[in-house]
């Protein structure tokens, strides 16, 4: 998977997780809220992975 696709999927998970948390807040459903937080965290991790891949690629391209 490319760095760009990691970052895009990460952003999508982050946004979906935030939305899920909002639904959990609105309905008082702690399970939905927790799953949203986990999905948002997954999105952050995916974005970090994409940024790391990009940094490695730039370093290799310079060499």
Write a structural description:
This protein is mostly helical and 63 residues long. It has 2 helices and no strands. It has helices spanning 3-27, 30-62. The longest helix has 33 residues, at 30-62. The two termini are 22 Å apart.
List the helices and strands and how they pair.
Blueprint lengths: L2 H25 L2 H33 L1
Helix pairs in contact: 1-2
Overall pLDDT confidence:
95
> What is the radius of gyration computed over CA atoms, rounded to a whole number of angstroms?
15 Å
Strand content: under 5%
How many beta strands in the DSSP annotation?
0
Q: Please write the string of helix (H) and strand (E) elements.
A: HH
Secondary-structure-based class equals mainly alpha
Q: What is the general shape?
A: rod-shaped
- Characterize the main sheet: none
End-to-end span in angstroms? Answer: 22 Å
Q: Regarding quaternary structure, how should these chains be classified?
A: single chain
Q: Count of helices? A: 2
Unreliable parts: none
In helices, the fraction of residues equals over 70%
């Amino acid at each position: 998977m490319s760095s760009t696709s990691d970052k895009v999927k990460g952003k999508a998970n982050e946004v979906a997780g935030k939305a899920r948390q909002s639904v959990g807040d609105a309905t008082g459903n702690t399970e939905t809220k927790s799953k949203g937080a986990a999905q948002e965290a997954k999105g952050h991790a995916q974005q970090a992975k994409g940024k790391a891949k990009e940094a490695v690629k730039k370093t290799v391209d310079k060499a």
